[in-house]
Amino acid sequence: MANVHDKHRMRLRERFRANGLDDFQQHQVLELLLFYAIPRKDTNEIAHMLLEEFGSLAGVMDAPIEELVKVKGIGDGAATLLKLIPGVCRFYFDDKNTLGTLLQSTEDIVKFLIPKFVGETEEKVMLLCLDNRNRVAGCPMICRGDVVSANFTPRRVVETAIKYRATNVVLSHNHPMNDALPSRADLDTTFELYETLQRVNIRLLDHIIVSGSDAISIRDSGGFARL
Asked: Any signal peptide, and if so, which residues (predicted)?
């Protein structure tokens, strides 16, 4: 039986090396990944159990480690590997989006920001800092939590923008469990922050809310009309 599993694993690896993941189904992606944490078990069966429990590949990757290890065949090592993937993806996209990148439109800004939130299951606030030609000077995290949490203050945003010598900034946060529609608190925070930054000659270009692969520009949706 071990020999049968070994041959199956070899075929799946060779298929990936030849053609990538384009023609793989979700359970096959998980099966292949689990080869590297579970050397002697049938990872096909485990992959199906994971998908049945969490609903999708994204659901598996977003699940807490303490929930993953409840699935038969998933130990601490396999659970850690699964949780590592979204974080690695985030680092990968961060590395691709290098400093000095010119962002000329809302579409450019959204494409830059969405990868910053890949795999995040909690809210966080980011500040995209740009120079006077809208080239990226940095994109640090301001805080964990949303824009009305105790950890978020306009002062922290101003200090961060000055630290990165930003002329223009874009505030961004995620809605990991909901759609990207802005709340009243999001709009009020945008208005307050716009006025605060204006006093130190820094322009708030936009506030982008991200939910998965979707994003909404508060400026483009009319939220800056009161400014």
From this structure: none
Q: Cα separation of 26 and 28, whole Å?
A: 5
Closest CA to 209 of 56, 106, 95: 106
Compute CA distances 144 → 17, 111, 149, 195, 198, whole Å: 38, 21, 8, 23, 25
CATH superfamily of this structure's domain 99-217: Cytidine Deaminase, domain 2 (3.40.140.10)
Residue intervals of the chain classified under CATH 1.10.150.20 are 2-93
Q: What is the CATH number of domain 2-93?
A: 1.10.150.20
CB 121 within 8 A of CB 178: no
The whole-model pTM stands at: 0.73
Mode of pairing for the β-strands spanning 141-144 and 168-174? unpaired
Q: Where in the chain is the domain with CATH 3.40.140.10?
A: 99-217
Decide: 204 and 218 in contact? Cβ < 8 Å.
no
Q: How far apart are CA 227 and CA 213, in angstroms?
A: 28
Computed over every residue of the chain, the mean pLDDT equals: 91
